[in-house]
Amino acid sequence: MRAVVVNSFGGPEAVEVVETEVPRPGARQVRIKVAAASLNPVDAGVRAGVFGGAGERIGLGWDVAGTVDAVGAVDVAGAAGAWSVGDEVVALHYGAVKPLGTHAEYVVVDADAVAPAPATVDAVHAATLPLNALTAAQALDRLEPAPGRSSLLVTGAAGAVGGYAVRLAVRRGMAVTGLAREGDEEFVRSLGARHVTSDAVADRAFDAVLDAAVLGEPALAWVRDGGRYIGVIPHAEPASVRGVETGAVEVSADGTRLAELVRLLDEGVLTTRVAETYALEDAAKAHARLDEGGVRGRLVLVP
After folding, report:
1. Domains of the chain
2. Model confidence at 81: pLDDT above 90
3. How many CA atoms lie within 13 A of 110 on its CB side?
4. Distances in Å between the alpha carbon of 177 and those of 87, 157, 168, 209, 241?
5. Which residue from 94, 83, 127 is spatially nearest to 253, judged by alpha carbons?
6. % of the chain exceeding 90 in pLDDT
7. Residues 270 and 133 sit within 8 Å (Cβ to Cβ)
8. Is the Cβ–Cβ distance between 167 and 144 less than 8 Å?
9. Which residues lie below 8 Å from residue 259, measured CB to CB, with a gap of 6+?
10. What is the DSSP pairing of strand 175-179 with strand 151-155?
């Protein structure tokens, strides 16, 4: 099968499409025939060596939508028994340094990372959901405010993680302000944000900040004394000041939670955005487009 890998770190030119053996699922695993897999900024970070792994062949890709094509042996817990060949699914294949990712014709994932595919969108759109929506939901879990304190600023509110965070936070009853570039205000308001701004943010104005744009210390200044800051890059959050609790979400694969997000997508609470699609063999071109910036929605690879 074909798979997208990097054998040495660098820019888009480091991305290779290689022939490799089709992986076999073990106990509590399933193999998915990939229909679509989105390209995320974390893939560019892996490609550039941000997460280590020098000297290894590293497979790219975290998100996948496709069809179960093999099920591993069912052990005592029987987790793999929840899935059958032919099931249409989505999944998060967690891990920065792994020999094969979802940018391939087939991928093996843990059975408990899998959820039924959405019924209302195609595989290309479904493939944009797992990583970004799970990151947003799990970040909000860390920001649950005290009673009477529910003002939230989401930076990068028009982005993939930020957009999901706005919508999910509004659904939780939080008063959301979105920080986004000029031209994105209408979109962020459509997600339910009470206020949208492109630059003017008062210091200490919010009970919490979800820093999807990775602004760091400037975003921390917008949190009230004793509030909460959550970033989206583990171990990259700024140090605590003024009693502000700081942290960063490290997304985890969770098929049960992903199934809830799929349900919200099917109910129209969440929406997906696809910028462009690329054939698997054009993965390097997709990385080059991502590096250019200004992408609204996700780039998706189709085997």
Report:
1. 2-130+254-302 (3.90.180.10), 143-248 (3.40.50.720)
2. no
3. 13
4. 39, 9, 13, 10, 22
5. 94
6. 86
7. yes
8. no
9. 115, 116
10. parallel
